[in-house]
Specification:
about 450 residues, 3 domains, 4-stranded antiparallel beta sheet, 17 strands
């Protein structure tokens, strides 16, 4: 009897900046034999890892990873890291001739001012009024601007420095930084800036802020997750975003979405037109947008040219869709539709964000006994504790107005069951119970694009 042929080894794949949700998925997929992953990068939010920011050069990093990939015979390279990883992975794939989209398309999506310009050309009805704020940090703010307006960096992550300003003095204070703060901001933007100058010079410098028109308070915020493969733009699901009442800070994300299917279809059409215009040909994307139920207007906040990793777990629970496995398939040039669906484990799921607002003292992180109790009673739950103190905490409050000290993922049979589980989990952790009855609209005079994760 002829012995069965041995199974081929799993393909080698480079996965850059795989942390938090990505790290969990990377380990699970490797154990399942989906691929053999080589990881690289550093955790931007942990010291001493983030000391690597001092000498970071994305082009040099891509060259170094391409050498490793050539030696290790990578068949794909990916990243879902917004700040540095997605662009670096595109550069690596380009150097190795692997499946991927062009670095220019990633730059075009991540350069928020350039993306607005493209939107105005191809989908003006889904765009906002906008302009660049062409002054250096700390320089006098010009007269003649219209207030209130929303100010945000041309290139940033987690909506750092994004906020509404009501007058010139507030905007002037917002653009004044200490030497340390200015150094951090420059180091966060400069790696992107170098590549952008070489590959997409028409976008202009990313070392600046931009202004956008505010959005009415009754508008609700959503995220469209999808992918592009073989020239086709496909939607995976829409995730609902709910804010802390009276703020621009996220309180939770939920699936399934309450947004009407017809509006979801329009959002996908907007994504199709924009992604085609910037030449985004392969990969996951995440489109953040507002919908005004009163006027039926849909307005784009921004495009992220990568999988929204935080939502992958939610899709897996409710849809049985393993978005991370689908993303790996894309990196290998395969159709994500061929990735087998899993049995859904929940009728509703949420990513619950625990945060304090400016001036509040965060609760202590859960101790070993509290973590054990959470794991015992909620074995399907995911827990991320991210406490800060001292200058790091003060910087959070100054730059974002809040501090996100923890995230919990849970599923339930329905939203009522999810609420019960969330309240119980919060009690175990010693954290304030989340308000799962809070409505999606924000009860303030206006809401502007770029709310805080």
């Amino acid at each position: 009897m002829t012995a069965p042929a041995p199974s081929p080894p799993p393909p080698g794949v480079g996965w850059l900046f795989a942390y938090d949700w990505d790290a969990i998925a990377c380990d699970a997929l490797e154990r399942a034999g989906v691929a053999r992953f080589d990881t690289a990068g550093f955790d931007l939010f942990r010291f001493p890892d983030n000391a690597a920011l001092i000498a970071l050069d994305l082009d040099r990093m891509a060259t170094r990873q391409a050498r490793i990939g050539r030696r290790r015979r990578w068949q794909g390279c990916l990243s879902h890291h917004e700040q540095f990883g997605t662009l670096t992975a595109a550069l690596v794939a380009e150097r190795l001739g692997l499946p991927g989209t062009s670095p220019e398309s990633v730059l075009a999506a991540q350069h928020k001012l350039h993306a607005r310009t493209v939107l105005q050309q191809v989908v003006p009805e889904a765009n906002l009024g906008f302009s660049g704020l062409d002054v250096r940090y700390g320089e006098p703010i010009p007269d003649g601007l219209t207030y209130p307006c929303f100010v945000k960096p041309v290139k940033a992550a987690f909506s750092v420095l994004a906020r509404q300003v009501d007058d010139r003095d507030t905007l002037q204070r917002h653009t004044r930084f200490t030497w340390t703060e200015a150094w951090i901001i420059r180091r966060l933007v400069e790696p992107f800036e170098r590549v952008c100058r070489a590959r997409l010079p028409q976008a202009g410098t990313a070392h600046r802020l931009m202004l956008e028109e505010p959005i009415p308070a009754h508008c609700a915020q959503y995220n469209l997750d999808g992918w592009v493969h073989d020239g086709r733009v496909r939607g995976l699901a829409v995730v609902d975003a709910i804010m802390v009442p009276g703020t621009q800070a996220f309180m939770r994300w939920e699936v399934p979405s309450r947004l009407p299917p017809a509006v979801q279809a329009r959002a996908l059409d907007v994504a199709r037109r924009f992604l085609g215009a910037i030449g985004f040909t392969l990969g996951f994307f995440n489109m953040e947008f507002f919908h005004d139920a009163a006027t039926d207007r849909l307005t784009v906040i921004e495009f992220n040219p990568r999988l929204a990793s935080q939502f992958g777990d939610l899709h897996r629970r409710v849809l049985g869709a393993d978005a991370h496995a689908m993303s790996v398939a894309l990196a290998l040039g395969r159709d994500p539709e061929t990735v087998p669906r899993l049995a859904p484990t929940a009728g509703a799921a949420a990513s619950l964000v625990f945060r304090t607002l400016d001036g509040q003292t965060p609760p202590p992180p859960p101790n070993r006994e509290q973590r054990a109790a959470f794991a015992r009673d909620h074995p399907d739950g995911l827990l991320f504790s991210q406490p800060k103190q001292g200058r790091a905490l003060a910087r959070d409050y100054k730059w974002t107005g809040s501090h996100r000290y923890g995230i919990v993922h849970l599923g339930g049979r329905d939203r009522a069951h999810l609420r019960e589980r969330a309240e119980h989990a919060s009690t175990l952790l010693g954290w304030p119970a989340p308000n799962l009855d809070a409505p999606a609209p924000i009860p303030t005079d206006s809401l502007s694009c770029g709310a805080r994760r």
